[in-house]
């Protein structure tokens, strides 16, 4: 390559540009070295000398090419041959065309310019005057404000949290204008955090920053699990401080802080972290049971006592979180009316799910009896396990002094987008057909019910869904009628599915607690790792199930060592290279394994957030052309040309794509070609020496081998099934024989794992 220019600098720049655009595939080249040389300050100044390269080791600190296009092709090739790898996807999207972005019209019928986001909204008060001024303004507002949950809880409840960043950003500017008077937009935290990395291969922090740039005017709200952050178990206090600080810096304004057991000590950790970061503290009471039923343990006195404790922690707003949709309209009047009477200046924000079909009635009742804000979502994403319809709430309050102050035509226009998008994500639908008033009995949270249905299918319990719901009630009773929201709802759900898988009644669990291998989440709860439940732990179940394991009777965070963030960042940089940010550190602290899997996936396939959702979920047709914008001004024009035959001895196929007019080929392992049908023997329940798998799953860890001497209760293996882990333990003393499995094997319930032969 030879370059020239009228000056040295022009020639240098030509060389650098040529190197950047140069592509040589299949062999290593010195292009990275030359590019580094061209950008060194001494070379730019023209002051190099004969031994400059020898004397400048920094020239060999090379930055590799991003190679984004080839990585993207590797993903598309795998998708083309093996189909989607996104867990929970069933079939292909029903929507095949291009999604139409709606236009917003003003009162005169003229098109509103949405090329720039709106500057009007409640966030201005937070930024200019602070959280207390915001709370005061909310309380003084005459109407009822709304929070839109479409961007988080609605798609978590209906579409398994699978909506991608690109599809949120595509409607962001229109949302900025149409919903400028929202109390907040719930768009981050909760399950969206780990699902973004775990299943969508996206950076949740990148999502937050992109949304914030496009919607600068509406307050962003997130769900914070108290001392858990966004994880499923307690973390060191400084981990929560660090996480909340990063969330505030990257765009979150309002933090709905809750604890899965309404444990005030756990709540205090999250509330203090938000105060330190300068965010709006929405200290939250989780509503459970039926306040109108005198037989239930959670009565009005219980809730008012909890509100007193939250007010003492200087919260800005009180949240009432009805995660299962069991807050009946009359109970709503009593609860909100009592809180308003006791605390006339405290803003109240109420959340519900429409599982029973009474969501709109309950939210109207809350508004009438003193709530300042209630939750709703776009019509086509509403109802059932999601939130009530936003237009139904607007219509119910329209013409009264509680009018939400939103343009109904603009709200409807946005819904035309979400109605199309829901069809695009149809492979993740739970296919609920109507409300479920049985929720007043089983109390399964809206965000969990659809996930449990999917889990039941994966565990082979799909035909026993009614039994699973009944087992959920029984599991809740066994655990002491606890508040059920992530992560405690998972505890109840894991126990319920464990009971159905192993055909255990409530009495069976009590009688056999000393010998059953309970799911890991159940043992963590009974240990006290999730906090202290109101009324205490169930005995003797707790003691029997733990079998000598520790029991914590204080806040779990008190027993955890602080996180060394400097070390974590250094270790991550060593493993994944320069560029590790504080947000990456926060992600790793919350979900170490998930973060590592995400990084390894993106190192292999690159940033998939640029890929249109249609081609993220399903392969294109032969000859179909589509565009992918890697960055502004850099667009790939792709077309699938052909899929080669299977190469028998390698189990691979060649896939041919056209990229910007050039034919590219990728080699893909055909996973269907290497599938082996393994038939495993079943454990004989009448033979005490045979140890069977308690349910379907993957053996993620094997702790014994043939000949290992074990004692009763010793762990043999760890089984993982849909985020649920359980240890398979030895039923008695003896020696391991007839080991039937290896790490990584998939097993069905009752498959023989091994035999324990008595000495």
From TrEMBL:
Residues 682-757 form the Lipoyl-binding domain. Its cofactor is Zn(2+). SMART domains: Biotin_carb_C. InterPro entries: Aldolase_TIM, Biotin_BS, Biotin_carboxylation_dom, Biotin_COase_C, Biotin_lipoyl, Carboxylase_cons_dom, PCB-like, PYR_CT. GO terms for cellular component: cytoplasm. Residues 1-58 form the Biotin carboxylation domain. PROSITE patterns: BC, BIOTIN, BIOTINYL_LIPOYL, PYR_CT. One of its GO terms (molecular function) is ATP binding. Keywords: ATP-binding, Biotin, Cytoplasm, Gluconeogenesis, Ligase, Multifunctional enzyme, Nucleotide-binding, Pyruvate, Zinc. Pathway: Carbohydrate biosynthesis; gluconeogenesis. GO terms for biological process: gluconeogenesis. Its main location: cytoplasm. It comes from the Eukaryota. SUPFAM superfamilies: Aldolase, post-HMGL domain-like, Rudiment single hybrid motif, Single hybrid motif. It holds the Pfam family Biotin_lipoyl. Residues 144-412 form the Pyruvate carboxyltransferase domain. It is found in: Cytoplasm. PANTHER family: PYRUVATE CARBOXYLASE, PYRUVATE CARBOXYLASE, MITOCHONDRIAL. Pyruvate carboxylase catalyzes a 2-step reaction, involving the ATP-dependent carboxylation of the covalently attached biotin in the first step and the transfer of the carboxyl group to pyruvate in the second. This is Pyruvate carboxylase.
């Amino acid at each position: 390559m030879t370059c020239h220019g009228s000056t040295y600098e022009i020639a240098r720049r030509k060389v650098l540009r040529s190197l950047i655009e140069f592509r040589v595939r299949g062999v290593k080249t010195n292009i990275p070295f030359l590019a580094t040389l061209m950008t060194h300050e001494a070379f730019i100044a023209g002051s190099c000398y004969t031994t400059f390269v020898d004397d400048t080791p920094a020239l060999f600190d090379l930055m590799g090419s991003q190679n984004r296009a080839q990585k993207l092709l590797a993903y598309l090739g795998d998708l083309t041959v093996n189909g989607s790898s996104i867990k929970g996807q069933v079939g292909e999207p029903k929507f095949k065309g291009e999604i139409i972005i709606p236009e917003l019209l003003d009162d005169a019928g003229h098109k509103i310019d949405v090329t720039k986001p709106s500057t009007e909204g409640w966030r201005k008060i937070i930024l200019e005057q602070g959280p207390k001024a915001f709370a005061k303004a909310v309380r003084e507002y005459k109407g009822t404000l709304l929070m839109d949950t479409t961007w988080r809880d609605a798609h978590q409840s209906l579409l398994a949290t699978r909506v991608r960043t690109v599809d949120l950003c595509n409607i962001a500017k229109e949302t900025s204008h149409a919903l400028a008077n929202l109390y907040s937009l719930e768009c981050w935290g909760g399950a969206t955090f780990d699902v973004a990395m775990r299943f969508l291969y996206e950076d949740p922090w990148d999502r937050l920053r992109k949304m914030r740039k496009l919607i600068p005017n509406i307050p962003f709200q997130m769900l914070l699990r108290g001392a858990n952050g966004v994880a499923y178990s307690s973390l060191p206090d400084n981990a929560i401080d660090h996480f909340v600080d990063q969330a505030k810096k990257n765009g979150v304004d309002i933090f709905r802080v809750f604890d899965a057991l309404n444990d005030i000590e756990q709540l205090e950790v999250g509330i203090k972290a938000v105060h330190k970061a300068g965010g709006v503290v929405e200290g939250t009471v989780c509503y459970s049971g039926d306040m109108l039923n005198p037989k239930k343990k959670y009565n009005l006195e219980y809730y008012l006592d909890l509100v007193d404790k939250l007010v003492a922690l200087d919260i800005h707003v009180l949240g009432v979180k009805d995660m299962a949709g069991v807050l009946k309209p009359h109970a709503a009047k009593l609860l909100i009316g009592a809180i308003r009477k006791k605390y006339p200046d405290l803003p109240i924000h109420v959340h519900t799910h429409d599982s029973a079909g009474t969501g709109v009635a309950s939210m109207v009742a809350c508004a009438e009896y003193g709530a300042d804000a209630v939750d709703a979502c776009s019509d086509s994403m509403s109802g059932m396990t999601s939130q009530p319809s936003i237009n139904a709430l607007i219509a119910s309050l329209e013409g009264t002094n509680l009018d939400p102050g939103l343009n109904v035509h603009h709200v409807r226009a946005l819904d035309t987008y979400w109605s199309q998008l829901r069809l695009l994500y149809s492979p993740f639908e739970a296919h609920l057909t109507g409300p479920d008033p049985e929720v007043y009995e089983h109390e399964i949270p809206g965000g969990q019910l659809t996930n449990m249905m999917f889990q039941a299918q994966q565990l082979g319990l799909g035909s026993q869904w009614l039994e699973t719901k009944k087992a959920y009630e029984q599991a809740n009773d066994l655990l002491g009628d606890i508040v059920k929201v992530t992560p405690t709802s998972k505890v109840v759900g894991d126990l319920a599915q464990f009971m159905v898988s192993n055909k255990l009644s409530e009495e069976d669990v009590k009688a056999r607690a000393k010998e059953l291998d309970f799911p890991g989440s159940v043992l963590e709860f009974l240990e006290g790792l999730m906090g202290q439940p109101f009324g205490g732990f169930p005995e003797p179940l707790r003691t029997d199930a733990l079998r000598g394991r520790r029991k914590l009777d204080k806040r779990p965070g008190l027993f955890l060592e602080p996180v060394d963030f400097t070390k974590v960042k250094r270790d991550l940089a060593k493993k994944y290279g320069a560029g590790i940010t504080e947000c990456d550190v926060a992600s790793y602290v919350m979900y170490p394994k998930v973060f590592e899997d995400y990084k390894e996936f993106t190192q292999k396939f690159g940033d998939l957030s640029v890929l249109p959702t249609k081609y993220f979920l399903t392969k294109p047709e032969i000859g179909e052309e589509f565009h992918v914008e890697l960055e502004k001004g850099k667009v790939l024009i792709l077309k699938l040309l052909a899929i080669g035959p299977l190469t028998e001895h390698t189990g691979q196929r060649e896939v041919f794509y056209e990229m910007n007019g050039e034919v590219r080929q990728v080699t893909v392992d055909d996973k269907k070609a290497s599938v082996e049908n393994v038939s495993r023997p079943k454990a004989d329940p009448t033979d005490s020496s045979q140890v069977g798998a308690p349910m379907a799953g993957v053996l993620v860890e094997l702790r014994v081998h043939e000949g290992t001497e074990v004692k009763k209760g010793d762990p043999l293996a760890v089984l993982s099934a849909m985020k649920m882990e359980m240890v398979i333990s030895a039923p008695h003393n003896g020696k391991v024989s007839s080991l039937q499995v290896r790490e990584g094997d998939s097993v069905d319930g009752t498959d023989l794992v091994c035999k324990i032969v008595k000495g």
